[in-house]
Amino acid sequence: MTTPRAPELAAALRAAIKASPLSVRQLAINVGKSHTTLSQWSNGHRVPTVEDVRALLDHLVVADDEVARILALTEAANAPAGDRLVAGVTEAQARIMDNESRARRITEWSPDLVPGLLQTSDYARVILGDRPAAELHIPLALRAGRREVLTRADSPPEMLAIVGEDAIRSCIGSPTVRAHQLRHLLKVAELDNVTLRVVPRSNAFHSGLLGPFVIYEFDRDPSVVLLEHHRSSAFLYNEVHVADYQDAAEEIRQRAMSPEDTAELIAECIG
């Protein structure tokens, strides 16, 4: 199973190998591996051991800080699931939290619901469904913890949250829950690092009608797209696919209201 840091490791190795004056075949001979194995390491189809990466780095021209980063990625990618996860946290949730904690910028398109990072606990409780209180404790605590990434003191990520008008006008839970959620949106939209924009209802087709998505952009690692479904999540790392979603996000952004008009709409919905 691909671990949360394996794609980042593959991208780092790919860049280091590409910058080498030696061919992949020559590097493979130098480290005692087949060129196919090196290709699998650099495209993310196989996770190399720390020893393998150390041997490869000995034959590459890589700055010391990048060597340290690649080795740290290798250790993280090889960590057993039990070391990476806390009780009650799925592999997908761990990847999402890891992306949120490291992202420089988060762009989310959510046509029907308020984005997870902007949800109140009461709103999230409705979304999580009718479960016993004991089963809701961990997921609600996780969501509350995830929200803090936007207000942390040390380099919080920029977030562009684009939501459909239905996400604002729908009554998820009681009218009280809805009003509390909308007031929270107005408050969080005042943060310097958060931009909230609403896409008005329309009969015209646009890429956003194909479903919600999240794009995570990082300082050094390649961007990642998250697609969340009812019971599963998918992460896209392919550069072409990521670029397609970035284009879609831009198309949707151009259809959205300004942040000022968005705030007026939300205030109007609160009444």
TrEMBL record:
InterPro entries, per the entry: Cro/C1-type_HTH, DUF5753, Lambda_DNA-bd_dom_sf
Source superkingdom: Bacteria
Annotated HTH cro/C1-type domain residues: 13-67
GO terms, molecular function: DNA binding
PROSITE patterns the UniProt entry points to: HTH_CROC1 (PS50943)
Name of the featured protein: Helix-turn-helix protein
Organism: Saccharothrix texasensis
Organism lineage: Bacteria, Bacillati, Actinomycetota, Actinomycetes, Pseudonocardiales
